[in-house]
Write a structure and sequence with these properties.
- By secondary structure, the chain is an alpha/beta fold.
- The protein is about 45% helix and about 15% strand.
- The strands form 3 sheets. A 7-stranded mixed beta sheet has the order 2-8-7-6-5-3-4, sandwiched between helices. A 4-stranded antiparallel beta sheet has the order 9-10-13-12, with no helix packed on it. A two-stranded parallel sheet has the order 1-11.
- Strand 3 (about 125-130), helix 6 (about 135-145) and strand 4 (about 145-150) form a beta-alpha-beta unit.
- It binds pyridoxal-5'-phosphate.
- The site of pyridoxal-5'-phosphate has 14 residues, from helix 5.
Length: about 425
């Protein structure tokens, strides 16, 4: 059977990710997938709050002061700006939904935690992920005592085939797979995109086995080349996709605003959707009570100022991240072409991350050596796998660096590689 998460590995990884940059302040860090601060529209956010207050006052039929007082109170657990978020998801992502299907969360991380808790009520329930996968789901599942199992299809096998095989194996062992979590667009950590055929086949398999598809989509709006594929939530006809959204990358992480979008009819059942919404809301009311109304108001104001579409803001960010990707690809080619096929990397068509494969193991020790002696920080891909595999791969995050830093960072890394070889 596919691999299960190794206890505590992700906690160490999280610590490592958080601490290595401050341990080596002079080093150029390709470690964290943060949005670039140079893109933060701080002036717009200051204008957004009064814009939302005007709108809210009109909605409530009260004065601006009354609206401000209401915002300052505890709020509705399910959220305040649901209709505006629904409009934005419909316009930008093609996900037609209403505000009633949405729960506003404190970032996507809360959305992940609440959803897996609500779906996995029994000790036999498990969540399926891809290997490697986002560390946030691994940590959340561990924290909630929920087992994760990963699929890693061999060449020639599709994700849907691997999923079906695993589901059968799990059921034979008395386990119940409740959900399949993935990032279809510009995945963290790999940078890969799921093909249209994979998306459709996975949706069919999920519908057949009644497994919810948890689609996490922080990077979908940053598409560098060609046309974007529709998110799986926009392709879903059977009510299998629970969509997990965030404004951390399109607006800014400090606001901590994300969302859960529940299908109108979960597996064709409207009552099941309502039950899930009630369960999630109840859980949230004991976890964070409600998501900061001031922060929701800033997001709401940005959506009002931008006519409920983030395409304009995302365009500027996409140009920036594309340029960084191109500088990174050019620098890798300059530094490593001489080594032929010994080092290979993918060409991400969007998002924040690139994967490179090295001719030697790059683990925690190598990462520390690289930071200490060569002033550059790279993330071992094995940190993001459930079984410690992908030992010779690294994740390169290129989102929060200037071009000159990318070039210099790759030069330093190539010195490390040459010395290692
Ligand atoms: C795949 C993925 N999901 C979720 C998150 C977290 O989002 P948020 O800041 O909304 O909690 C991240 C952040 O890096 C991410 O890469």
């Amino acid at each position: 059977m596919a691999m299960q998460a190794r206890a505590n590995q992700h906690l160490e990884t999280m610590n490592f990710l958080n601490e290595i940059a401050s341990d080596y302040p002079k080093a150029i860090s390709f470690a964290s997938g943060r949005p670039s601060e140079s893109l933060f529209q701080t002036k717009m956010w200051v204008d957004a709050l009064p814009r939302y207050l005007e709108y809210f006052a009109l909605q409530c039929g009260c004065s601006l002061q009354g609206a401000t007082q209401r915002l300052s109170q505890y709020g509705r657990t399910g959220g305040l700006i649901n209709e505006l978020v629904a409009s934005q998801l419909t316009k930008d992502e093609g996900i037609s939904c209403s505000g009633q299907q949405i729960i506003i969360t404190s970032g996507c991380q809360e959305a992940i935690t609440l959803t897996i808790q609500a779906l996995c009520g029994h000790a036999t329930d498990v969540i399926i992920v891809r290997n490697p996968c986002y560390i946030g789901i691994t940590g959340a599942a561990h924290g909630c005592g929920i087992d994760l199992v990963a699929i890693d299809p061999p060449p020639g096998q599709s994700y849907a085939q691997a999923l079906e095989k695993l589901v059968k194996e799990l059921k034979a062992l008395g386990r119940t797979p409740r959900a399949f979590y993935l990032t279809a667009d510009f995945d963290n950590p790999t940078g890969s995109v799921l093909s249209m055929a994979d998306r459709l086949a996975i949706l069919t398999t999920c519908a057949t086995y009644r497994i919810a598809l948890l689609e996490d989509n922080p990077y979908g709006m940053f598409c560098f080349d060609g046309d974007r594929l529709p998110p799986m939530a926009a392709l879903d006809r059977e009510g299998v996709v629970i969509y997990l959204g965030t404004y951390s990358k399109t607006i800014c992480p400090a606001l901590r605003i994300g969302c859960i979008v529940i299908p109108q009819r979960l597996f064709g059942d409207q009552v099941a959707s309502q039950r899930l919404a009630a369960d999630l809301t109840q859980r949230k009311s004991f976890l964070t009570v409600n998501t900061s109304q001031f922060n929701q108001a800033v997001v709401g104001g940005v959506l009002l100022l931008e006519n409920c579409s983030l395409l304009r803001l995302a365009k500027e960010a996409t140009d920036y991240y594309r340029r960084n990707r191109d500088v990174l690809l050019g620098s890798l080619a300059n530094a490593f072409d001489i080594l032929g096929d010994d080092i290979a990397w993918n060409c991400p068509s969007g998002g924040f991350f690139l994967t490179a494969d090295l001719p030697f193991i790059f683990d925690r020790n190598e990462a520390i050596k690289c930071a200490e002696k060569f002033d550059v920080i790279l993330m071992p891909m094995s940190f993001f796998t459930l079984d410690g595999s992908r030992k010779t791969s690294i994740r390169i995050a290129f989102s929060n660096l200037e071009c000159a830093e990318i070039t210099l960072g790759v030069e330093r890394f190539s010195d490390f590689v040459r010395q290692h070889l």
